[in-house]
Automatic annotation (TrEMBL):
Gene3D superfamilies: alpha/beta hydrolase. Belongs to the AB hydrolase superfamily. It comes from the Eukaryota. The chain crosses the membrane at residues 6-34. It comes from Salix viminalis. Keywords: Membrane, Transmembrane, Transmembrane helix. This is AB hydrolase-1 domain-containing protein. PANTHER family: ESTERASE-RELATED.
């Protein structure tokens, strides 16, 4: 398989058989997330990256391009956190590519709003951006255990390392795309069947958000 240079940072392909059906499984990393493995792509000027990826739309286009390039359709998409929203957006762009969306801990908006509990106030979000900007290393150190939300050292270490692989300025730009986004309006446009999975104790996403997701999509 040859992927065009604009394609993906990392795509792992394997085939698995469940019962009598065989599935092609693609493990896809979001662009710009694994900088140390793909230094070539990281040499692109940061401002280009920040522009294209300051919204989930850039990632959703990547996903659609990848599926087109591999001629994959009837996808069962599994996306966690920001990737859940990216899957929703991609399914609106090209519904025929998707058969089902499995959304784990996704949220269309993290900021509180009138009549909406997103989990974060504006000042909490501002403080978070400030900490990331001031000292990214120590922000990751403090944020990772909170985000993992349980006493699981291997999981926390893995999450920390994946955050540390990002350049701080890119991480900040991604964090802004995540925490300042409001995708609530698109939920009614998601027509591909969804399975919404939300853990009870999620330090980032309140449970009420999952119910909103269910109601609207
Ligand atoms: C869906 O994918 C299969 C397998 O790659 C391909 O043969 C078929 O033409 C595709 N269908 C559409 C509508 O793109
Ligand atoms: C960031 O914080 C770490 C401790 O968590 C410290 O070792 C490092 O010197 C700090 N870096 C800067 C640039 O302040």
């Amino acid at each position: 398989m040859v992927l065009k240079p604009w394609s993906w940072l990392m795509v792992m392909v394997q085939t698995r058989v469940f019962g009598t059906t065989s599935y092609l499984i693609l493990l896809v990393a979001l662009r710009w997330w694994f900088s140390t493995w793909f230094s070539l792509q990281m040499s692109a000027p940061t401002f280009i990256i920040q522009r294209k990826y300051s919204s989930f739309n850039g990632y959703a286009s990547d996903l659609v391009n990848l599926l087109d390039e591999l001629n994959v359709n009837k996808t069962i998409f599994v996306g966690h956190s920001m990737s859940a929203m990216i899957g929703c957006i991609a399914s609106i762009k090209r519904p025929e590519l998707f058969k089902h969306l499995i959304l784990l801990g996704g949220s269309p908006r993290y900021l509180d709003a009138k009549g909406y509990n997103g989990g974060f106030t504006r000042s909490e979000i501002n403080a978070l951006f400030k900490q990331m900007d001031r000292n990214y290393t120590s922000w990751v150190q403090a944020f990772a255990p909170v985000a993992v939300g349980m006493n699981n050292t291997p999981a926390t270490t893995e999450f920390k390392n994946s955050l540390w692989r990002m350049k701080p300025e890119i991480a900040l730009s991604v964090a802004k795309a995540v925490f300042l986004s409001d995708w609530r309006r698109i939920l009614p446009k998601v027509f591909v069947p969804c399975t919404i999975i939300q853990s009870k104790r999620d330090p980032i996403v309140p449970n009420s958000v999952a119910y909103l997701h269910e109601e609207k999509s």
